[in-house]
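Hello forum,

I keep getting stuck at the same step: I have a sequence, I want structure tokens, and every attempt I make locally crashes halfway through. Rather than fight my setup again tonight, could one of you with a working pipeline run this one for me? It's a single chain of 150 residues.
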Amino acid sequence: MLILFGLLLAGVVATLWVYVLQRREHHRESLRATVLKVQVDLLREAAGDLELARVAAGPQLADAEPDEVRGHLYLDAQVTVLELQWRTGALSEAHLRAHAAALLSSEAGRRYWRRARDIRAAAVGEDAKARAFHRALDAAHQEPQPAAAR
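Reply #2:
Ran it on my machine without issues. Output:
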């Protein structure tokens, strides 16, 4: 009887431990999603103000034309929205790859990824979902483009 009680107690403790771990991971994902939403809001704000746009786009676009800066921010917002959809499970891997291929099929999209890739790669860390997202965009960027898309 004492052994059965010990096993039951161990089962309850293990169940509670798994619950705590799942809640912690859910909280982290929720925070990541919130941060991505804020990032999109900041990019939206910067798109309406050229000075903010130049700050948001970074030093590599300091001397670029206003339209190029705004285009960069727009693409960055699109990529961030894709990442948010990917993180929240709203996109399958196949859909992510299709969206990434479409986004990076234009010269502007490819130019954006060349500029943003290293910065975004630095933020990936040990996060498996972020690594998978980054790999999908890299794969789309590596795809050979038809002559008309260049």
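The two ends are 75 Å apart (CA to CA). If your local run keeps crashing, start a new thread with the error log.
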